[in-house]
Amino acid sequence: MKAITYSCYGPPNVLKVKDVEKPVPKDDEILIKVQAVEVTKADCEMRSFKFPVKWFWLPLRCAFGLRKPKRQILGSYFSGEIVSMGKDVLNLSAGDEVFGAAQLRLGAYGEFVSLPASYTIVRKPENMNFEEAACVPLGGLNALHFMRLANIQKGERILINGAGGSIGAHAVQIAKSLGAEVTAVDKAIKKDFLLRMGVDAFIDYTKEDFSNGDKTYDVLFDMVPRSAYSKCINVLTPNGRYLSGNPNLAVMLRSFFTSRFTNKTARFAFAKETREELLTLKQMIEDGSIKPIVDRVYTMQAAPEAHHRVETEERTGAIVIKIGDRQSD
Ligand SMILES: NC(=O)c1ccc[n+]([C@@H]2O[C@H](COP(=O)([O-])OP(=O)(O)OC[C@H]3O[C@@H](n4cnc5c(N)ncnc54)[C@H](OP(=O)(O)O)[C@@H]3O)[C@@H](O)[C@H]2O)c1
């Protein structure tokens, strides 16, 4: 089978399409013919081995491969079709069109991937094509996790910092579906995209600081690493909630003191990405609460361009690679 592989860490052009061995499913696994995969920031970080959290470099390097990557086929969030399965799999069938997450097994940059049936993989919503569906699991699962933690009530005001990314764009849609008034913070090229996703107000962070002025928020969902913690807490209403999806050690520590000694709550979390959450997202897609966020679709050969577009943040929405030689829907 063909797969986009990388045999050394480096710039986008280390990605090469090669012939590799097709995986064989174990008894508890499903073999999926991958149709589309989202290109994420994490894919680019694993490829280049440049991570925002510097102190974690050595443990990560040991885990991913000291001299060269141990897993040479990237790809975590995908859509595809089940072609066969091991004898112990009962919950899915050959022919099912699915979407989901490959977790740390990765491998969805290849034409076939074999994954445990217990992973977060469910039937794809009928009203999304493969490319659109592949863009949901990363952003949708993480956003849903945080929006549930925020316990948003109808009419509450939420500010989403970093709203133009995969997680932010889904958080916008989920918050709107819960009846919140949403203010999005990101840079100007993402404004039209975010208005299409339904935001009520937009702040361009390159021109304006959201903490200036009198406006306060019941919830602040922060996706931006190194954002100013005190400013975030200061714009909360009494009893307001701050949620960090990208906490550093200082934020973790300060969150404890905020929640313990003030009437505001600060929390950080790492999403679990469960099947129940993916089924909820499927339902939200089918009832129209979540719309597709695709920016551009690339072929396997154009994987370096796809990575470049994610790294340079020219995108407005999600970047997808169509796997195999199928025509796009
Ligand atoms: N806690 C968890 O469980 C969890 C899980 C997955 C991912 N994450 C983390 O969550 C973050 C967001 O993920 P994602 O996939 O949505 O990332 P993403 O697609 O890169 O989105 C981040 C967005 O924030 C914008 N941004 C950058 N600096 C900003 C600033 N100062 N103010 C406002 N917006 C700013 C970016 O725009 P520009 O860069 O173009 O300005 C981009 O639109 C990542 O850092 C990821 O590591 C956390």
TrEMBL record:
It holds the Pfam family ADH_zinc_N_2. Residues 10-321 form the Enoyl reductase (ER) domain. It comes from the Bacteria. GO terms for molecular function: oxidoreductase activity. This is NAD(P)-dependent alcohol dehydrogenase. It comes from Rubellicoccus peritrichatus.
